[in-house]
Amino acid sequence: MVDISRLDFNLTTTFLALWEERSVSRAAKRLSLSQSAVSASLGRLREAADDPLFVRTRGGMQPTLRAIAMAEPLQGGVALIQNAFSTVTAFDPATSRQHFSIGMSDDFQIAIGPLITRRLAEEAPRVSVTFRQANTHRVEALFEAGEIDFAVVAQPNVRSGLQRQEIGRSGYACLLDQVACDLTLPLTLENYLSLPHLLVSFSGREGIVDQALKDLGHSRRVQSALTHFSALPPFLVGTRAVATLPVHAAQSLAAVSGLTVCAAPIDLGDYSVSILWQRTADNLWMRQMMSDAFLAISPDLEAIYSG
C-alpha cells in the first residue's frame, strides 16, 4: 500500500500530462519543466504504483493496464481540486496576505525594489515580498524549483512555458565622485581611460566595457573588481575612480551617496528589460506594480543619456 500522506500530488499532473501527450518531451513542455525533471517524476510514479505505467514504443509512451486503470480516477480527482479552487475570490491587495518571491539582480533591486515595497505599504499592507538574487543564467532554475513567482531580468532567453512582458529598456552610465576625480563633464574618452576603474561582474574578470574598448583599440585599468553594485559607493566616495554600470542602478546609488552620474564616453548600447512568470501562476496586479516601478525611473534614464 502507498502511504498517501507521503505522496507528492504534483506527480498527478505529471501522470496526466504523460497520459495525454504520450511523450516525455511534450509533457515537459506542457508542464514548463525540463525533460529530466519529468523523467524523474515518472520514476517516482513507477515506484509508487509498482508498475512501469508508460512504456516507450515507436508510437510514443504507451500506457500499461495499470496506467489505464489509474487515469480516470486521477482525472476526476484533479477536476474536484480545480472546482474547489475555482470559487476563490479575486485578488484584493488591500486585504490579501499573500507572499510573493521576485527574482532580480541587485541592480534592479537597488532601482525598483524600494518603489515596490513603498507601494505595497500603501496599497497592500499585509502582502509581503522576498527579493531573490537572480540573473538570466539562474532564473530558469529558480522557476523550476518553485523558488520565485516572478523575475525582472535583462535580455531574457525565454524558454517554453515562461511568459514574458517587456516593460522598457535600459543601458549604461558612469558613476564617480566628480570632486575627487577633479573632472568637468561630459566625460571624455581620454579622461575615462585615465581613471582607475571599478568593475562589477559576476565572474569578477571583465565586462561589456572591456569588449567595447577592445573594439576601439583601447583598454582600461581595473583597480578593483566587485560582484555587487550595491557595494560601489564606499569604493567611489572620495576616490579618484569610475564605475560603469546599468544606468538605473547608477542613478539610484547616486541619490543616496552624493556621487555623480554621467553618460559613458563610448557606445555600450541598450537592452530590453522584461518581467517573467510561469504560465500557470500569474498576478496581474503584482505585474503591473513592477512595471509601474520601472516606468517611474525611465524619464530619469533619458535625462542622463541626453545630458
From TrEMBL:
Residue ranges constituting the HTH lysR-type domain according to the UniProt record: 7-64
One Pfam family matching this protein: HTH_1
Organism annotation: Gluconobacter cerinus
Coiled-coil intervals, chain numbering: none
Name of the protein described by the UniProt record: LysR family transcriptional regulator
Entry's family note: Belongs to the LysR transcriptional regulatory family.
Entry keywords, A to Z: DNA-binding, Transcription, Transcription regulation
Gene Ontology MF terms: DNA binding; DNA-binding transcription factor activity
PROSITE patterns: HTH_LYSR (PS50931)
